Inverse folding.
């Protein structure tokens, strides 16, 4: 039987797949959302083999990609990502998911403090976007995307970097023929951001980075960006969805 399941791995309940899930609506594919991060222990048997998958999506979270002792599931996810790369299963990593994908590919991920950089939180445009890339290319014209991270992926000379910002050298990268890592949060809509800002940990982190008006600023910027950003994000995610379907139908 063909593999028709897109597996989405979450690390925090509120960091939902948002527009990624919307893009899969009506695709004819099954979607399974799993969260392993709260397990006291985890093994490779806790996740399906890549031969069962039409696609793999790994979402964000506050933990460090190398905190394997504190979060054993991260090692399991990295193993699955490495298998997906080997077997060319269409894959998307978002924020922490992108960092785990980078680690699965052998790239380093370092705290911003080690690089002399503060957390990057807020809405801002991408720069030097590779317009020829099928997934990231449409975002070259986006007015802004949501950034919310402290750690940075450290690209090597051979890394295919697809976008950057002034403080983050690798905002998006290509990990293989059908695998992408996005340091930013393409999935977030204004409503999903409202859910994030309903969490004390998020509002405290935002205030530390942006000051006392952080919540109002983030909400206003989200609504300002949404009309132009959403169709570009939908174009980007529709191309990913097409790859999932092609893999399922092969």
């Amino acid at each position: 039987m063909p593999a028709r399941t897109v597996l989405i791995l979450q690390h925090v309940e509120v960091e939902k797949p948002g527009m990624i899930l919307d893009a899969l609506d009506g695709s004819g594919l099954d979607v399974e959302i799993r969260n392993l991060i709260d397990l006291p222990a985890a093994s490779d048997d806790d996740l399906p083999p890549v031969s069962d998958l039409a696609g793999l999506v790994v979402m964000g979270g506050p933990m460090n990609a190398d905190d394997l002792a504190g979060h054993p599931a991260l090692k399991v996810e990295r193993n699955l990502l490495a298998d997906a790369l080997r077997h060319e299963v269409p894959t998307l990593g978002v924020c922490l998911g992108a960092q785990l994908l980078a680690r699965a590919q052998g790239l380093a991920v370092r705290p911003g403090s080690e690089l002399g950089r503060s957390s990057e939180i807020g809405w801002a445009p991408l720069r030097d976007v590779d317009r020829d890339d099928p997934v990231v290319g449409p975002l070259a014209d986006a007015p802004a995307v949501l950034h919310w991270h402290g750690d940075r992926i450290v690209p090597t000379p051979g890394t295919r970097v697809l976008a950057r910002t002034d403080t983050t050298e690798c905002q998006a990268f290509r990990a293989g023929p059908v695998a992408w890592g996005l340091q930013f949060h393409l999935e977030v809509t204004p409503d999903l951001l409202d859910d994030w800002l309903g969490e004390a940990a998020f509002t405290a982190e935002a205030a530390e980075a942006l000051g006392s008006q952080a919540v109002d600023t983030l909400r206003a910027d989200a609504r300002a960006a949404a009309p132009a950003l959403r169709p570009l994000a939908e174009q980007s995610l529709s191309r990913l969805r097409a790859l999932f379907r092609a893999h399922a139908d092969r």
In short: The two ends are 11 Å apart (CA to CA). The longest helix spans residues 214-249.
